[in-house]
TrEMBL record:
Record region (Disordered): 470-495
Domain of life where this protein originates: Eukaryota
All copies of domain CCAAT-binding factor, residue ranges: 344-521
Taxonomic source organism: Penstemon smallii
Coiled coil regions in record: none
Cited Pfam families: CBF
This protein's name: CCAAT-binding factor domain-containing protein
Length: 603
């Protein structure tokens, strides 16, 4: 076999480019030179020089394009007839050579050889031309699926030029999008099955080939790249004439024709009578169904952390509006929201949309949201969107008082340990909470013992004689001033005792070192002292703040009054005695005379 391949390679090297061009012209001009077809096919390989492969491809493409509507399908190769028609045998043989050409073109397209980069765009165009008319003049989904399968499972990188060419040149055609969704759904199911089989094998045996893991991760990355680059079918795109890659279209009604008896005679009639083009609304419905199946199948895969985050960030904009039933994402989003940390932060936006617009019920939503309030959230990348969503989630007037008080108190406690920009966001959120929920205004000024008297009066109905000394001492301890009943470490808002506490943290920040923070506290006190309802503060104005924004705003601020060190009389000491009661500062006259004498000499 090796000697045969070497001899074929020598014959290929002996042929010049002009001879190859002559073989192609002979094949196109006469049926008698059909034996030139296998010779030209032998030059479509990843190792063939670019100019040789290009010349052979141009000849073969020009030869097969007119014949494709007349060739039988791949399933009719093996004929059981005793005396088959020579014409059928000839066309069947041509079909087999066409399939060889397609396989060779796919090998060249997914090849990692740098010498073939100039040829790959031409090969992609040739494959898509064959997809266009390869199925008796219709869209050949089998060739397209084979190409995508080879592309996804190849060693090509995610940023390969072939993926960009496919997206930019062909994803604007709606039939290409349609079959891309179908193929990607099938590919995700096969990858999911392979990953499950790989896990079972790894559990059964420790010595296992782990080289498939990186390839699976690369395949998942490429599938996400393809899915994210397909433009969704907007509602405004529902029109009568969609831009199709195949002129016959794919969205057609069911026809009664089952077999192709006389293809040349009945092809024109079938398109007129049997095939009825669907309406634009039905086309949008079919596209939405395939879009949903592809994305739901993809989200079942074991995604990498970077892909997982990227999907969660863009899910509410690029996926949810175009799903046939967005509630199908509830399991994925709830599972992501329960992870905690940054992943929960990214899943919050999409989960909030499902709850407010699609009727999703999630009882533990506010408990998980309360758990996200940590100092690290004020340094997160997507903190601006989180604070806006937090303000929206706490906007409902139906929230119980203990829940609003718990969020208000938790945010106030965080204001003591976050950057100044975070304190400004907290003040805006606390201000809005107090304005929306008058029942928690007791946090502004909590009377001493107001929280404990309610508990003792409720406990008078019980048997006081059986009360322990420990509980009595604990109650006496709680009645002491300066005791905060708020449980900051409690994860359940209803068990935090927030209504028994007060917002002393806000009052503490009145003397903050950062002037914007102290000014905001004063304005907050002024708003709360007014009994009339004031306007809510826009959280988005402070949600994306940082040290840089606080510094720049302070520089641009025009100050009307500037503090100056002005004295009516010359000071005799650095500090006055009133500032240090009990201390005396004596002035030495001799040192003063020596200093004045030195000053006179200098002048």
């Amino acid at each position: 076999m090796a000697s045969v391949q070497k001899s074929k390679q020598k014959k290929k090297e002996k042929r010049s480019l002009s001879e190859l061009k002559t073989l192609g012209q002979e094949l196109l001009n006469s049926r008698g030179h059909i034996n030139n077809l296998p010779i030209l096919l032998s030059f479509i390989t990843p190792n063939t020089p670019t100019h040789y492969a290009l010349e052979s491809l141009l000849s073969l493409q020009s030869f097969f394009i007119p014949l494709l509507p007349q060739l039988p399908s791949s399933s009719t190769f093996h004929s059981k007839q005793s005396n088959p028609d020579p014409e059928i045998v000839y066309r069947t043989w041509l079909r087999s050579k066409f399939d060889e050409l397609v396989n060779s073109l796919i090998d060249v397209a997914v090849s990692t050889s740098q010498s073939q980069d100039a040829l790959r765009e031409v090969v992609l165009d040739a494959i898509m031309e064959f997809v266009k008319v390869g199925n008796s003049g219709k869209f050949h989904s089998a060739i397209y699926h084979k190409f995508l399968h080879a592309l996804v499972h190849s060693d090509l990188g995610v940023d390969d030029i072939l993926l960009d060419l496919l997206a930019t040149k062909y994803f604007n055609y709606i039939d290409v999008r349609y079959f891309t969704y179908i193929s990607l759904e099938k590919l995700t199911r096969t990858v999911e099955k392979l990953t499950l089989d790989g896990k079972d094998k790894s559990r059964s045996s420790d010595v296992e080939d782990k080289s498939q893991l990186p390839s699976m991760e690369l395949s998942i990355l490429k599938m996400h790249n393809l899915l994210s680059h397909i433009p969704p079918l907007e509602a405004s795109e529902e029109k009568l004439d969609y831009e199709m890659w195949n002129d016959l279209g794919i969205f057609i009604g069911k026809s009664n024709s089952k077999e192709h008896v006389d293809l040349e005679a009945k092809q024109a009639k079938s398109h007129k009578s049997n095939e009825k083009v669907l309406s634009s609304r039905n086309v949008a419905k079919k596209m939405k169904s395939k879009f949903t199946k592809a994305w739901i199948a993809f989200l079942r895969l074991p995604l990498l952390l970077d892909v997982y985050k990227e999907v969660l960030v863009t899910l509410h904009q690029t996926v949810i509006p175009y799903l046939s039933n967005p509630i199908m994402l509830c399991d994925f989003l709830i599972r992501s929201y329960d992870i905690g940390g940054v992943v929960s932060l990214m899943a919050l936006n999409s989960l909030y949309i499902l709850m407010t617009q699609h009727g999703l019920e999630y009882p533990n939503f506010y408990n998980k949201l309360y758990a996200l309030l940590e100092p690290s959230i004020f340094m997160a990348k997507h903190r601006a969107k989180f604070f806006q969503l937090l303000d929206s989630c706490l906007k409902s007037s139906l929230l119980p008082a203990y829940l609003a008080a718990a969020f208000c108190k938790k945010l106030s406690r965080l204001a003591l340990c976050v950057p100044p920009s975070g304190s400004l966001v907290i003040f805006a959120l606390v201000h809005n909470l107090l304005q929306r929920h008058p029942s928690i205004n007791c946090l502004v000024h909590q009377e001493r013992g107001a929280g404990t008297t309610r508990e003792t009066s409720a406990g008078e109905n019980d048997n006081i004689e059986n009360a322990k000394d420990f509980s009595a001492s604990r109650d006496s301890f709680d009645d002491k001033p300066g005791i905060d009943h708020f449980k900051n470490e409690e994860s359940d808002p209803k068990d935090t005792n927030a209504l028994r506490s007060s917002l002393w943290e806000i009052d503490t920040l009145r003397h903050h070192y950062c002037p914007p923070v102290s000014r905001f506290v004063l304005s907050l006190e002024n708003d709360l002292s007014v009994r009339a309802r004031t306007a809510e503060i826009a959280v988005k104005d402070f949600s994306s703040g940082s040290y840089a924004t606080v510094f720049n705003n302070e520089i641009r601020r025009r100050v009307k009054q500037v503090p100056l060190a002005f004295y009516k009389a010359t000071p005799t000491s650095l500090f006055s005695e009133s500032e240090f009661p009990g201390w005396t500062f004596q002035f030495n006259d001799e040192d003063h005379l020596e200093a004045s004498a030195k000053k006179q000499r200098i002048t």
